[in-house]
Amino acid sequence: MTNTASSFPTAISVAEARARIVALAAARPLPAERVALDAAYGRVLAHDVRGDDDVPAYANSAMDGYALRGADLPAEGERTFALVGARLAGDGRPAAVGEGECLRITTGAPLPAGADTVVIKENVRLEGAGVIVAAGETAGANVRPAGEDYRAGEFAFAAGTVLTPARVGVLASFGLVNVAVARAPRAVVLTTGDEVVAPGMPLEYGQVYNSNRASLAGLLRGAGAQLVRHEHVRDDPAALEDALRRAARDADLVVTSGGVSAGEADFMPALIARVGRVDFWKVRIRPGMPMLVGEIGTALVCALPGNPVSGMATFLTLVTPALAALAGRSDDVSPWYARVAVPIVKNHRRAEYQRARRESRRDGSVWVTPFPRQGSGVLRSVAEADCLIVLPEETASLAVGDIVEFLPLPGQ
C-alpha cells in the first residue's frame, strides 16, 4: 500500500483536493447504529424514512370554537345552533353533530362526526343554550384534516439527511422512539513538535503552548465526530510511526498537526507513504499549503500544518467536507456571498482564505472586512473573526463593493 514521492500529485488546486478527499471518505461509509430520538440531533440518517400512519391521524380543530356542518352556515343574517356538548383535546369519546347543531371544541380536539367546520369562539354570540352564528363564515374553516402533515406511507426524509430539531420532531410525530443513523466518525488527533508544551506546564524559552489540540478537538466535535483521544508526539520518526499505526487502528479519521512540510523535522510525508498511502501532498491554498491526505489501513489521514491558523483553515476547507462524506451526508451547503468593504490585493497564485468579520446593513446587503493581520500564526484573528473570505486563485484584486464568497466560522 506504500507509495513514493513521485507517485502522488502535489501542489493541486483546492477544488481538486476537495474532490479527492471527499471521494476517499465516501468510499468508506460508516456503519449504522440506532439511537434514541433525544440523542439524534445532528446525526445523519442511515435509511430513508416514511410515516406508517397519517399525521395527524384524525381531523381536528385548529382553533377554540364551535364545530358544525359547513352546509348549515347562514348565507345572510344569522342562524342559531343548538349546543349539544363539548370536546377537549385528548377526548376520544364518540361525538356527533346533526343539522343545526354545534359542539364546543378546543384546539387539537378531534372533530365530531358530521362536522367539517369550526367557527372561532370570538365570532359567535351565546344566548341560553343557543350559539348564534352570523353570515360570512367559511365552510371547512379552522379544521386540520387527517394527514395534513404526512399521509400514511408518504416519503419524509432520505438517507444522508442531517437531523435538525424539527426533523427529529417529525420522527417523534411518527411515533418513533429511536432511529438508524450513521455511526459518528471516530477521530484521533496527533499533535507534534518538540517545541510544543501542554497548557499548565512550565513554558521555557523557545516553546509554545499546544493550542492546536483544543482547536482541532473543537472543530472535530462541531463537525459531528467522536474524539477517541489526543496524543502529543515528539519529533522522532519511530515514535511518530508508532502513533500513526495505533491511531489508524482506532479511528476512521486521523488528524495530525505539524511535521508535514519539507523541513528537517517534517517526517510525516515519508512516514505516511511508508506505512500507508499518500493521495496528495500540498494544496494551492493560503494559509495551509503543506497539507497532506492519505490512508493507513482503513483510516483516512489528514496531515495539517502546525501553524494554528493554517490548521484551522485547511480543516474547514477540506476536512469538514470529508467528515460529511464519511457520515453519508447528502445535503449540499449553499455558498455565502457578500461585498468587500475595503480593497483587497492578492499577490500570489493560490486560493486564499482571509479572516474577516461581516455586517448586515439596513438595505439588506452583507459586507465583509478582512483583518489587517493575516499571518498563519495569528490565532487571535480567528478568534475575533466570524468568517473566512474566499479569494480564488485567479483573483488578483477586489474593489470596494465587489462580490466575494465567504465561509461562516463554526458557532458564528
UniProtKB/TrEMBL annotation:
MoaB/Mog domain span: 188-325
Primary enzyme class: transferase
Biological process annotations from GO: Mo-molybdopterin cofactor biosynthetic process
Enzyme Commission number(s) of this protein: 2.10.1.1
Coiled coil residues, start to end: none
Required cofactor(s): Mg(2+)
Cellular component terms per the entry's GO annotation: cytosol
Molecular-function GO terms, alphabetical: metal ion binding; molybdopterin molybdotransferase activity
Pathway: Cofactor biosynthesis; molybdopterin biosynthesis
SMART domains tied to this protein: MoCF_biosynth (SM00852)
Function: Catalyzes the insertion of molybdate into adenylated molybdopterin with the concomitant release of AMP.
PANTHER family: GEPHYRIN, MOLYBDOPTERIN BIOSYNTHESIS PROTEIN
The family this protein is said to belong to: Belongs to the MoeA family.
Name by which UniProt lists this protein: Molybdopterin molybdenumtransferase
Species for this entry: Tahibacter soli
